[in-house]
Amino acid sequence: MRLVVLVSGSGTNLQAVIDGLHLGDAPVEIVAVGADRPCEGLRRAEAAGIGTFLVAPSEHPDRERWNRALEREIVSHRPDRVVFAGFMRIVDAPFVAAFPGRIVNTHPSLLPSFPGAHAVRDALAYGVRITGATVHEVVADVDAGPILAQVAVPVLPDDTEDTLHERIKTAERSLLVEALAELAG
Ligand code: GRF
User: Which atom of ligand 1 is nearest to the CA of 16?
Assistant: First the structure.
């Protein structure tokens, strides 16, 4: 299974996939890592000897052309799956249609609760006692699409957004690795 992984941030989910699946005889190869901005995730890919690409929205005249440029770059690596691992951009419907049923996203809540960019903050503000992480197929609607795997994580009384997000991310990393291993068969 050839993967292109997209990141925007610290890349700890990417690192888990590199460490858990990319080495040895695992039937998974990360053929490239892409990002929308310079970030730690790209540095992790470089350190692991994986090719990288950067497609920044600021270098394209509009959202549509940025989507097409990102799409072209991904297609050139001939992936079986595209993994959004902390990729903090919304792609358009033609992008999703270019990789039908083949884009996987990880999200830090138990979808369909708390979609969007502030899932951890929103769960904390709502006062839920259990939240978690979801790995799902990407469809044109944001944070929707068939669920591939979920894990529950408790919210503790003194949690801040950061402490809760760290607890979620610990569970989320294993979840993503397991879900991709399952997809790889
Ligand atoms: C993850 O919790 C992801 O679901 C969210 O941002 C975080 C990314 O973490 N959208 P990292 O960059 O993989 O460390």
Answer: 13
Cβ of 122: how many Cβ atoms within 10 Å? Answer: 17
Whether the upstream peptide bond of residue 115 has omega within 30° of 0, thus cis, is no
What is the set of active-site residues?
107
Please choose, from the candidates 175, 168, 173, the residue with its C-alpha nearest in 3D space to the C-alpha of residue 12.
173
CA-nearest residue, atom 9 of ligand 1: 86
Give the pLDDT mean for 142-162. 96
Tokens representing 9 are 């941030």
What residues form DSSP beta bridges with 152? Answer: 132
Domains parsed from the chain with CATH numbers = 2-184 (3.40.50.170)
Backbone phi and psi for residue 25, each to the nearest 5 degrees, phi listed first:
-95, 5
Q: What is the pLDDT of residues 110-141, one digit of tens each?
A: 999 999 999 999 999 999 999 999 999 999 99
